[in-house]
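[Automated response] Your request has been received and processed.

Submitted sequence:
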Amino acid sequence: MPKETRYRNRIELLQGTLDLLVLQTLQWGPQHGYGISQAIRTNSGDVLCVDTGSLYPALHRLERQGWVSSEWKVSGNNQRVKVYRLTTEGKKQLASERSRWEQFSRAIARALNPQGQEGEA
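Generated structure:
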């Protein structure tokens, strides 16, 4: 995909949405920041690109809230990396955020297709 097309199609993530994506990514296992951004990009079919200017503030915010913990480790290529892990509180927050997202998604779908609601109360 040409760079200008990628830029035009880029979807800016709202803070709460980014938090949900980060928590979900960490649900699959501990990961360093670059790995989190790559997982989000890959799992979204290259539609969602999270830059470091958004990702690291989100990780720090999630850590302050107690939903994510971190520790420094040495990677396979002998570099120090900060690895993030979902906490027990983070798992609870993820469940709550997913529920809210599903409700929000259904509401948007209904608003975009009100004819599909015929016969509903």
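Summary generated for your ticket: The chain has five helices and three strands. The beta strands are 31-32, 68-74, 80-86.
If you did not submit this request, please reply to this message.
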